[in-house]
Specification:
Layout (H helix, E strand, L loop, with lengths): L49 H38 L15 E4 L5 E5 L3 E2 L9 H11 L11 H14 L11 H11 L6 H17 L2 H11 L6 E2 L1 H9 L8 H8 L14 H17 L5 H8 L18 H15 L1 H6 L3 E4 L3 H22 L7 E2 L10 H5 L16 H8 L11 E7 L5 E5 L10 E6 L1 H8 L8 E7 L4 E5 L5 E8 L5 E5 L24 H10 L7 E4 L18 E4 H6 L3 H11 L1 H11 L20 H12 L10 E5 L5 E3 L4 E3 L15 E3 L7 H17 L3 H4 L7 E6 L5 E7 L3 E8 L12 H4 L1 H12 L14 E6 L4 E6 L78
Parallel strand pairs: 1-5, 3-4, 9-11
Antiparallel strand pairs: 1-2, 5-16, 6-10, 7-8, 7-10, 8-9, 10-11, 12-13, 12-22, 14-15, 16-17, 18-19, 20-21, 21-22, 23-24
Helix pairs in contact: 2-8, 2-9, 4-5, 4-6, 8-9, 9-10, 13-25, 17-19, 17-20, 17-22
């Protein structure tokens, strides 16, 4: 068939062509038009089919919509990524990351004393973690750890399908890799269950993989994760659950640790042993899949029980709690709490465990002695129910005498033992004491106690009788009754000693005289009862133990120990100081005045020297921060601490160098670098001496001088006489060593001190009440504190070589007569032994002193509050012995209180 081509518009007749602007007729076909009634020739042929046009338009619309949608999604994804990436933490910090690590305190002999931490964590380098432990965690947590790039997409898909079909209503199954867990725990610190967090975690994980090697990622993970029971990291967990280091773990123990990250609580072997055992065996099977162990090794490990050996948090060592607490406070003050408790510091202290033990024991025994001699028994700590004692356990008790080795089981325990196991002992009870119940008071008083009260599997009940002397002690005020809970200390002969917590307190410090290293420090009766450290925190008046600084200042002014000052009544306004004995000796040498602690000579000496000079001496020595410029301060009417006084005495003992007490020898950071040492003493560079000459290293002492070696030695010599013939004789009893010291008693016997030293050790002891009140009439430092000092030094010096005080150049020792006893003193060039020179005015001695010099208005204690009567003499001026003295009309006091503000004795 021949196709017919329609004519083009150009080929049509002119009559049939229309203008593009002409409108078609709307009249029906075949009818006339308005323009003349011409007939239409029929429809024009279409240029395109309408169906194809619609399809093209639909296709274009869909294509445009798709492009727009993809663009919107792409822009949205890019914006979401930018938002995630912009708020993500930097992974660069992980390159030098170390998690919070426990700081450790060590004694002077490098024994672990205590640990300081918010989180118990011990950091272990990756190369020190055994492969068995690494493989156990990889098998349990991320089997494709070494092949993925931070995110395991296969595991995510598997977890997604499982969550979709099998875990409706349950927590979604996780698929986090070890790298993702590092990102979550270390960088994000966020465990919220959300897709946004998972996206941030995944993005960070991929960045971490691009930044760090796999070994470093695994090291951070194994040291950073929490594994339950307060343990962070694998090393801390190994010690917490098995009490052994990582390199001693077997496959079963490594799998037990690897079971914990999924849920440290639900799989904790202490809390849920059955669940923990199942999870451990599951980990062992995963270790077989990863070829970490063989099937035979896994089966053998599965047969092992959960053998747990708990390890409590280390320290402090017994009796060292106050020392460790002061070190902790110093670290926080120096570095801040975060670095001190989480910086992994190794702090090597000066503590000597042996000296600490004997100091604690001697102080406690001294407090018990005082308490027993000044008070009766104050009553029981509680009472057991009558039913616990009414079942008649006589036969059972008879089978369990004190010292027997029988171990009671829960079925064999008498009722009183079961009840006693539930009783809470007083916080002040010592470790050697036991909480006991009075079983019978017929005849001798029979008591029962538990030998192992902290072990519920072996309480070991014991019975014994109280000593008759203790029964009589209690009977005076609180007779013992059946069922009462009391504190006792078992003795080897089947008897028990009745105990009670003393109300009086005390403190003691032992210090190296040359370096100021604090070797032992006890801050009171019991740290568990009160953490207040009375050795370093309690400000108390030192009384006459302050006087050696006055005499040291005199020696610095080249005054001879043979110099005499008048021991006679003196008054300054309303202040009328007197000697402890209330007698007057007249002209008295400084040697005798210090030996017998004569107040009036000390007052005149201080007035002659001038308070400005004494204040400078006291402040520079470290005895006080700011000393009031009043004469009563020369008798100890200032406030100081036991630790400060020990430092001041060490300056006298070591030849005049200022001593700053130190508890820390040096501090190391986690890398082992020494970051701090105390100032003052150091070694010169190897091969160079202090004067720059070639030779061995020498000690370089950069500490300021408090006094010349010659002046310090003169005071040491006079203080030796205190121990040999004076007020300190009770402190030196039974010690065949050169010793120097001084007693101290404050106003109204509120503080009893003894401070003294050998050539190498300084020891200071204080006894008093926390809320100051009198210790009792004539309870001086010589009676209360000196016996404790004696016990400490007797044991401390027993293991040390016998040393003597070395005389410096420029002094000579001469035996002289003081007019009262023969004496040995040290004299400088120009000083004539035994001769008192004529002294000219110095300091305040050039004028008449008034009440303003005594600070009567600034000192709260006044003569009106004192136990003894006032002196009846008129005022007398202060000055050396050649100056006329005031009347000596002092009366014998009716009471035993201190006469004069400040030191007594």
């Amino acid at each position: 068939m021949t196709s017919v081509t329609p004519p083009s518009p150009e080929d049509r007749p002119a009559s049939s062509r229309r203008s593009p602007l002409s409108r078609p007729s709307t009249a029906p076909r075949g009818e006339s038009q308005a323009d003349g009634g011409r007939k239409s020739r029929g429809p024009l042929p279409p240029t395109a089919r309408p169906g194809w046009r619609r399809w093209r338009m639909l296709t274009a619309t869909l294509l445009g919509t798709g492009v727009l949608g993809v663009s919107v999604v792409a822009i949205g994804c890019w914006g979401f990524y930018e938002q995630l990436a912009g708020n993500l933490p930097s992974v660069a910090a992980l390159q030098h990351y170390h998690p919070p690590v426990v700081s450790r305190l060590y004694t002077g002999d490098d024994r672990l004393m205590a640990e300081l931490a918010h989180e118990k964590r011990i950091y272990v380098p990756g190369n020190a973690i055994p492969p068995l432990v690494k493989n156990a965690f990889i098998a349990a947590e991320d089997q494709h750890f070494y092949t993925h790039g931070g995110v395991d997409f296969l595991a995510i898909g598997r977890a997604g399908l499982t969550d979709l079909f099998n875990r409706h209503g349950k927590r979604p199954l996780g698929a986090s890799t070890i790298t993702q867990q590092v990102a979550k725990v270390i960088l994000l610190n966020n465990s919220s269950l959300s897709l946004l967090r998972k996206a941030r975690e995944a993005l960070l994980a991929m960045r971490i993989e691009d930044t760090l090697p796999k070994s470093r990622i695994l090291e951070i993970y194994l040291n950073g994760i929490y594994l339950g029971s307060g343990a962070y990291g694998v090393e801390a967990a190994s010690q917490t659950f098995f009490n052994k280091p990582l390199d001693q773990l077997d496959a079963a123990e490594a799998a037990t640790l690897a079971a914990l990250p999924k849920s440290p609580t639900n799989y904790n072997p202490y809390l849920h042993p059955k669940t923990a055992l199942w999870r451990r065996n599951w980990v062992l099977d995963r270790m077989v899949e990863t070829h970490a162990i063989t099937p035979e090794q896994a089966e053998a490990a599965k047969q092992e029980p959960l053998s747990l050996r708990s390890r409590k948090r280390s320290g402090p060592l017994p009796d060292s709690e106050w020392f460790a607490e002061d070190v902790r406070r110093e670290l926080i003050s120096r570095y801040g709490e975060d670095q001190a408790l989480q910086g992994g510091l190794d702090v090597h202290t000066s503590l000597d465990p042996h000296l600490q033990h004997i100091t604690t024991q001697a102080l406690r025994e001294g407090l018990i002695r005082y308490d027993r001699s000044h008070s009766s028994w104050r009553g029981a700590a509680g009472t057991l129910p009558a039913a616990a004692l009414s079942s008649g356990d006589t036969a059972a008790d008879a089978l369990m005498p004190a010292g027997s080795g029988a171990q009671g089981t829960e079925q064999a325990l008498p009722d009183w033992a079961l009840q006693l196991a539930q009783a809470k002992p007083p916080t002040s009870m010592l470790r050697s004491w036991r909480l006991a119940v009075v079983l019978s008071t017929a005849g001798s008083v029979r008591v029962g106690w538990l030998e192992n009260p902290l072990d519920p599997t072996d309480l070991a009940p014991r019975t014994g009788t109280l000593r008759s002397v203790d029964v009589g002690w209690a009977r005076r005020t609180h007779p013992l009754r059946k069922g009462q809970l009391i504190m006792i200390e078992p003795e080897a002969d089947g008897q028990a000693r009745l105990e009670q917590t003393p109300q009086v307190e005390g403190a003691a410090v032992i210090m190296d005289a040359r370096t100021g290293r604090v070797l032992a420090m006890s801050g009171g009766w019991s740290f568990h009862q009160s953490q207040f450290n009375r050795a370093s925190q309690a400000l108390r008046q030192p009384g006459s133990s302050f006087k050696p600084l006055v005499y040291l200042d005199a020696m610095q002014h080249d005054i001879s120990p043979s110099q005499t000052f008048l021991d006679a009544a003196v008054s300054y306004g309303s202040w009328h100081p007197q000697n402890y004995e209330h007698d007057n000796w007249g002209p008295t040498t400084l040697h005798d005045a210090l030996r017998e602690s004569r107040n009036l000579v000390t007052i005149r000496l201080a007035a002659y020297l001038g308070m400005k000079s004494l204040c400078e001496m006291a402040e520079k020595s470290g005895m006080v921060d700011k000393m009031p410029p009043y004469l009563p301060a020369a008798l100890g009417a200032v406030e100081t601490t036991v630790l400060r006084e020990a430092g001041a005495y060490a300056a006298i003992a070591n030849g005049g160098h200022v001593v700053k007490p130190s508890l820390i020898d040096y501090i190391q950071d986690p890398e082992g670098t020494v970051i701090w040492r105390p100032e003052g003493l150091a070694l010169s560079p190897e091969g160079t001496t202090q004067d720059g000459q070639a030779g061995l290293p020498a000690v370089v002492d950069t500490r300021p001088a408090l006094a010349s070696p010659q002046s310090a030695y003169q005071v040491v010599t006079m203080m030796r006489a205190v121990m040999e013939h004076g007020t300190g004789m009770s402190a030196a009893a039974g010690i065949d060593r050169p010793l120097a010291g001084k007693t101290g008693t404050s106003q109204d016997y509120k503080d009893a001190w003894f401070a003294g030293f050998s050539p190498d050790l300084v020891t200071v002891v204080w006894v008093g009440y926390d809320a100051p009140r009198t210790l009792g009439r004539h309870e001086t430092g010589a009676r209360v504190a000196a016996p404790i000092w004696n016990q400490i030094m007797k044991e401390a010096l027993a293991t040390r070589p016998k040393l003597d005080f070395a005389a410096p150049e420029g002094v000579v020792l001469r035996r002289t007569s003081t007019g009262r006893i023969p004496a040995i003193d040290a004299f400088k060039p120009g000083q004539v032994p035994g001769v008192s020179a004529t002294l000219h005015g110095h300091g305040a001695g050039t004028r008449e002193l008034t009440a303003s010099d005594t600070g009567a208005d600034a000192i709260p204690l006044s003569e009106d509050s004192m136990d003894g009567p006032q002196s009846t003499g008129a005022g007398a001026s202060a000055g050396p012995a050649q100056q006329s003295a005031g009347p000596s009309g002092a009366r014998t006091p009716e009471g035993g209180g201190d006469i004069g503000v400040g030191g007594l004795y």
